[in-house]
Amino acid sequence: MTPLTATIEGVGFWSDGLPGWRDACTFATTGRLPETAPGRPSPQLLAPNERRRAPATVAVALEVALAACDAAGREPASLPSVFASSHGELAITDYMCATLADQPQAISPTRFHNSVHNAAAGYWTIGTGAMQAATAISAFDATFAQGLLEALVQIATGSEAVLLVACDGASAGPLARVSRSEGLLGGALVLSRTPRPDAPMIRVALADGGIASGPTRGPLAERHHGNAMAPMLSLFDALATGAPRVTLKAGPERILQVTIEPTPEPESAHA
C-alpha cells in the first residue's frame, strides 16, 4: 500500500479525569491529574435541554470534535467527518433489548432515536449545520484504525481536510459480558493535506501481520485500557510524548504503521 499522509491540525480529547487535550498531555508527560474534572462533557454545540438528554457517547463525541476544530482554526460546518465507535451507545442498546423483551410498548422514542450507531454524526451535522458528508464506522477493536484510514483516504482523494472523531462509553447488562467497555473516552483529530508550521504530520501504511503497539504502552493507554476505544490511545500517547511511531490494529492479521514526523520547513527557510 502506498503510504497516506496528513497534517494533524487540531486535537480534541476527553476521558474520565482528563477533560481536555492539555490535561492529557500534562498527565502523559508528568503523571499529574487536574485537581477537578467534570463527570461528563457538556458540549456547547447543543441547546441546554438537548445537552441533558444526549447520551454520554454523543456528548463526548461533540466535545472533542469542537475542541479539535477550535485547535485547528477550522469552521466545523466546512469539514467532512468520520465518526468511529466500536459499540455506539451500549447502555441504550441494553435498555432497548431489555424493554423489548419485557414490555415492548414502553420503548422511549427519545432513547430509540439515540440508539442508532450514527447518532453522534447526526447530532454533529444538525448542530453545526454541516452539509458535508458524515461517515459512521464500526470495526470492533480495529475501529479507530479503520476510521483513521477512511479519513486519510478521503484526503488522498480530494478532501482538503477531514474531522475524525472516535469515542466509546461503558457497556451494561448482559452485553457487558461479551462487549466489555469501561468509562467514557473520546478523541478527535482534524487532518488536512496542507503542511502547517508546528503541526505534526503522520505517514500511514497498511500492512499484513505484525502486532499493534504504542510507545511501550503509554500513560493514557494504561489509564484507560478498559474502554473499547483504548486502541486509539497508542497514537494519542505518541502525540503527547513525542514518540515517532506506533502500530494500530486494523483487523485480523492487519496493522496500520503510523509514523509521526515534524512538519518540513519551507524551502525558503534555507535560502
UniProtKB/TrEMBL annotation:
Q: Which residues are in the Beta-ketoacyl synthase-like N-terminal domain?
A: 41-174
Which Pfam families does the entry mention? Ketoacyl-synt_2
Annotated stretches, region: Disordered: 31-50
Any idea which GO molecular function terms this record carries? acyltransferase activity
Q: Which domain of life is it from?
A: Bacteria
Q: Which SUPFAM superfamilies match?
A: Thiolase-like
The protein depicted here goes by the name: Beta-ketoacyl synthase-like N-terminal domain-containing protein
This chain's source organism reads Lysobacter concretionis Ko07 = DSM 16239
